[in-house]
Amino acid sequence: MASSSGDRSQRASSAADDDLKPFIEIGKDDRGIPEVLLVSPRGAQVRVSLHGGQVRSWRNEKGEELLFTSSKAIFKPPAAVRGGIPICFPQFGNRGSLEQHGFARNRMWVVDENPPPIQSFDSSCRTFIDLLLKSSDDDLKHWPHSFELRLRVLLTFEGHLILISRVRNVNCKPFSFSFSFHTYFSVSDISEVRVEGLETLDYLDNLRNRQRFTEQGDALTFESEVDRAYLCSSDAVAVFDHEKKRTYVIKKEGLPDVVVWNPWDRRAKAIPDFGDGEYRRMLCVDAACIEKQIPLKPGEEWTGRVELSAIPSIK
């Protein structure tokens, strides 16, 4: 793992221009919060904040931002940041005494200096960082289960973003949890976007008291607010952005569900950290496990993986 105090933008530009070796840099953002910068040989970049273990930025080799962050996002801990890829753990949604989407996205993580090995991991790829979150005394008051949550953030040679999460039960009794990579994709205009890979799936509609329906269309398009959890999906979902001629491909393992969310105009106006018209430039498509909670016995570990890629398309 390399680090440097040199100018990040200059190094990233050099990596893109000269096809240099990838590098990793640990520093601080503009607000003094620790963050990690990963740069691939072709110049793609990922920034990960230790506030929430959250990917805040993912840029392709052309420097184009692929993730949405609201102009009204709050960056001061312990508030959650509206955008990027928040991690929802140990719950998704707002139930019981836990805060919305759990506490993992609001806590300060640390760099995991000695992570246990990941089975079937390609060790030839060196552009990655391991982060760690452990249960705190305060968390145990609201969710009385000791855990270790590990996150590997990996940037491939081609610029694909891979996130691997592992939850270990270090408790003396079983517990169960929900999990989601709550991914805010940047899009040109939501009316020009469609999602494929959800055909014929059952879904829970959060706008209708979580009633269960079956998707009837060949593709999901957007004309109003959408807040759905598609159940037991295939391992690949695609988001087509017609105007940008770009396709986001989401490949996942250990995460059977897919959450799709866009607040549309009226709902967006009611969210304090969301700009009124910004709903047009974003779409959340989450790799998740929320319908059936994940059970862990003492000493057991669960792994969930998602690979995100952005490729040119002509559709």
Automatic annotation (TrEMBL):
Membrane spanning stretches:
none
For whether the record's keyword set contains Ribonucleoprotein, the answer is no
Coiled-coil intervals: none
User: EC?
Assistant: 5.1.3.15
Protein's UniProt keywords contain RNA-binding:
no
The record lists the catalysed reaction(s) as:
alpha-D-glucose 6-phosphate = beta-D-glucose 6-phosphate
Any one GO CC term of this protein is: cytoplasm
- Name of the molecule in the record: glucose-6-phosphate 1-epimerase
- Species for this entry: Sesamum indicum
- What is the gene called? LOC105164026
